[in-house]
């Protein structure tokens, strides 16, 4: 839904996942200079244009930005520096934390979800799958002021006409009294609220389900969940159908991935396909197409019409698969194993956000300025990983955060005392080639940690100080398992 009418942007979001944070980081360095005079002149023109006919002048003037936001133009033209494999995309999006959050949400909102299912015919787990992938169950709504973003996109660069419509629609939402103006924040492109609807989608499909007279997709979970169900319903959802199944291809079977080429289940049965666990294919899908996200050697899926409704939310098959998979794991209440039955065709699978945060913390500790530890492996983190790999002779230096790199930099911090340090190097080993200001590189030479002592002072010397002053750090494991170096005697 979010950008499905914007093919370029959809490919963009598909390629980088939902990590708007990484585009924001890129945006700061690549933001263009925009003329405010030109911006204000453009807004004067918009105010009197047909698209803004239904926006009253009080509303237009009251929320008129005083200057453009160049970072959204940088985001519009952002090209990811690194390609993301489908298994990395899925691992980061459908991880243990998100499944646990989904299981909790399923219990907390059980009554509401039941009512939504009876009104719209959409299964609770499918609504939860969308909610979890779109906004992490309402936890990640985006912080960009919508009027600034949309006004800027309306006046500069590509797609101005499209964004002018969305800008006008955003103003209408506030004018109608559905959403408080202060709640009008979202992604750089204008998707907002717990369902991450674009303003036009909001006006078309948002519903008031808690009965307070406002369609509040920011603060009302019932409104958000019902609006998601309404979206899926209007896009052709089939009540009572599964989204599809992970399947097993018979040996020697070859077919191209083509989700749209739908065939009956008996057709697929006759071709020798079974469920991934070997059971016969069920008959509860009216038709299904074959989806092979990583080719014939990876996980295979038969997907029905309901999968297509997930796809219509964001025009990416990986995205739709994340929703589908998350909904299955929530139903099964299974968060310990988030993999598919068939492994991805790689010897270095992806990682979840917990591992990503641990990698980021280790990079920070090693002196790489990657910004905040947010569990999102964006360009800054990947560049730092690449530098770290190069400096230590780790091959390939591809900047990718997979399980191998996780083990290399974080290591195993729970099992025994021979693991050495959090880079997974043996105790007393020396770093291959310490990066400048690599405090952890210094620490490596003195490593003597015991597994159950999470707060052990370790004396190290600053690498570039040229003095004999020593600083002391202690290693502290947080509740999330991330080990941090905390300086304990600064200036001593
Ligand atoms: Ca409401």
UniProtKB/TrEMBL annotation:
NCBIfam families: MltB_2
Domain Transglycosylase SLT: 38-328
Transmembrane segment boundaries: none
Domain Peptidoglycan binding-like: 354-408
Disordered: annotated span: 448-474
Protein name in UniProt: Lytic murein transglycosylase
UniProt keywords, alphabetically: Signal
Compositional bias ranges of the Polar residues kind: 448-470
Taxonomic source organism: Psychrobacter glacincola
Domain of life: Bacteria
Residues spanning the signal sequence: 1-26
One Pfam assignment: SLT_2
């Amino acid at each position: 839904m979010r950008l499905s009418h914007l093919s370029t942007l959809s490919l963009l979001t598909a390629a980088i996942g939902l990590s708007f944070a990484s585009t924001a980081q890129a945006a700061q360095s690549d933001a263009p200079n925009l003329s405010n005079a030109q911006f204000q002149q453009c807004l004067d023109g918009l105010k009197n244009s047909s698209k803004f006919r239904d926006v009253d002048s009080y509303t237009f003037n009251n929320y008129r930005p005083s200057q453009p936001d160049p970072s959204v133009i940088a985001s519009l033209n952002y090209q990811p520096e690194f390609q993301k494999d489908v298994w990395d995309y899925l691992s980061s999006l459908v991880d243990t934390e998100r499944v646990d959050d989904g299981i909790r949400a399923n219990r907390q909102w059980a009554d509401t979800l039941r009512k939504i299912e009876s009104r719209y015919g959409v299964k609770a787990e499918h609504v939860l799958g969308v909610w979890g992938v779109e906004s992490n169950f309402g936890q990640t709504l985006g912080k960009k002021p919508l009027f600034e973003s949309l006004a800027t996109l309306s006046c500069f660069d590509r797609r101005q006409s499209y964004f002018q419509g969305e800008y006008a629609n955003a103003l209408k939402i506030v004018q109608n009294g559905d959403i408080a103006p202060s709640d009008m924040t979202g992604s750089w492109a204008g998707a907002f609220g717990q369902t991450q609807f674009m303003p036009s989608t909001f006006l078309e499909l948002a519903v008031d389900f808690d009965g307070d007279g406002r369609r509040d997709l920011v603060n009302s979970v019932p409104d958000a969940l019902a609006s998601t169900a309404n979206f899926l319903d209007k896009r052709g959802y089939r009540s009572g159908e599964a989204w599809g199944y992970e399947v097993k291809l018979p040996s020697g079977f070859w077919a191209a991935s083509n989700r749209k080429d739908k065939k009956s289940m008996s057709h697929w049965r006759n071709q020798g396909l079974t469920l991934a666990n070997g059971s016969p294919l069920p008959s509860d899908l009216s038709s299904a197409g074959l989806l092979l996200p990583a080719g014939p050697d990876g996980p295979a899926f038969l997907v029905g019409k309901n999968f297509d409704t997930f796809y219509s939310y964001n025009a990416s098959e990986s995205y739709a698969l994340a929703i589908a998979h998350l909904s299955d794991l929530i139903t099964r209440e299974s968060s310990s194993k988030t993999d598919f039955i068939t492994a991805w065709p790689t010897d270095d699978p992806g990682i979840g956000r917990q591992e990503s945060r641990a990698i980021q913390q280790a990079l920070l500790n090693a002196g790489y300025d990657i910004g905040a530890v947010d569990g999102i492996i964006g360009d800054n983190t990947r560049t730092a990983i690449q530098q770290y790999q190069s400096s230590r002779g780790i091959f390939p230096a591809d900047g990718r955060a997979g399980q191998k790199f996780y083990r290399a930099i974080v290591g195993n911090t729970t099992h025994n005392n021979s693991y050495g340090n959090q880079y997974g190097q043996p105790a007393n080993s020396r770093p291959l080639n310490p990066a400048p200001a690599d405090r952890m590189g210094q620490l490596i030479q003195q490593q003597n940690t015991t597994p159950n002592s999470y707060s052990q002072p370790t004396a190290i010397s600053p690498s570039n100080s040229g003095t004999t002053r020593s600083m002391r750090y202690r290693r502290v494991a947080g509740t999330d398992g991330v080990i941090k170096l905390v300086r304990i005697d600064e200036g001593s």
